Amino acid sequence: MDMELSVTVTLFSQLALGVAVNGFIVGTYLLEWRKNRSLHISDTVLMSLALNRFLWQLFHTLASLFSFVQVTLTATYKFLYCFCAFLNWSSLWFAAILSVIHCVKISNYNNSLFIWLKLRLCRLVKWLIVANLLTSLAFTIAPLWFVFPHNQSTSIDVPQNNATLNPLQNIPSPLFVLCLGSLLPFLIFCVAVSLLINSLRMHVRQMRSRATGFQVSHVEAHLRVIKGMVFFLVLFLLYFSVIILGADKKTDSNWIYFYLGLAFYPSLHSAVLIYSTRQLRTACLAIYHGAKTCICVPHGNICD
After folding, report:
1. C-alpha angle with apex 266: 93 to 36, nearest 5 degrees?
2. 46 closest CA partner among 113, 12, 95
3. CB burial class (10 A; 0-12, 13-18, 19+) of residue 67?
4. What tens digit of pLDDT does each residue of 109-119 get?
5. Which of 33, 177, 180, 295 sits 20 to 30 Å CA-CA off 134?
6. pTM reported for the whole predicted model
């Protein structure tokens, strides 16, 4: 009972954090779109990523509660599981697409391939989004043959001995499905990070050889984006380790680590995106100062 209570409190805490952080990103860019009737391609992808995580946080919490109260595998639970899986795959893809945009826009390569990519960035991103939707849908549908076998009825008996429901226990090789579904966006992300780091190294060496001093703004742009991408890479590796723990250890008592690991990294990465994006950071500070003024003025305090 104590474990169930602590898990429930943790889930709702993560729900509140995820809804607040991702809702703030979506709201900021919706106001920007309403004002200008357009968004930059990077802002559009970032808003899509935040909206994806906003929905995923809600449905993930519902699916977790279904599992923790030990309900049967009804059609409702199947829908929640499938929708959460689809949002999870697409979230990884949107993060990879965002890294591609940062790499193409910030890196200073002068070869013909990068010039071609910069001129066709919008078209490239559209194709990547299509690939996102198709691959996410494929990796959502494919494991269903094993997760919810067709020879079973629409529901499965409730586990005994206070066990928590584990959908992955029916998959012959869950790690293969998880690794394969994450491989392509992970490789894209790693290539983008490597190209950005190499671009920064080339830029610094070029400035030193010319003895003209560093272009501080360009170097800071490189460093800011690289720090955010490396932080996401660390979070993704931690997330993947927890996924392996939850999928490999099929005992029901360890299944809670799968849910908690899934809910941990998206909110933290979204918070990092707010900090590293000037527009979001400015909007967040404006809300903070506005709230501070509203709190202080009624009490007669003077706020800076």
Report:
1. 70
2. 95
3. buried
4. 888 888 888 88
5. 33
6. 0.81
